Amino acid sequence: MDQTLSAFGTVFVFLVLGIVFVAGGYLTARMLRPSRPNPEKISTYECGEPAVGSAWVKFNIRFYVVALIFIIFDVEVVFLYPWATVFKPLGMFALVEVLIFAGILVIGLVYAWVKGDLDWVRPTPNIPKMPELPNRQPSGRSHG
Known about the structure:
Elements: H1 3-32, H2 39-42, H3 61-78, H4 80-85, H5 87-90, H6 92-115
């Protein structure tokens, strides 16, 4: 018998045992727990507040913008961990490289800040208006 086949067989056995373990846990819990649904149990729970209205409410776009900015910077910071583990052998090149990387992140943060994407409540823009001129009636005289 080939050694690779037995290694795949071991993986298959662990996969089957994992599926059986999870399915067995669900089935055991389903058989043991009481099932007494009532309107309070099946209602939507949101931070202790009673649900009001439809779940299809339009949210402010700022929720998504702040979340995306957080995810972008959070993921980028994750790249610093591998760099920190191998910094010493790489020397000055790695330091300059990570400073450039951090500089790009700071530029992105400043751009988002200046653009106002980090402000939770944006002020309403003050658009100047031209004063209206009074309607002048032609006098009938010609200049000339």
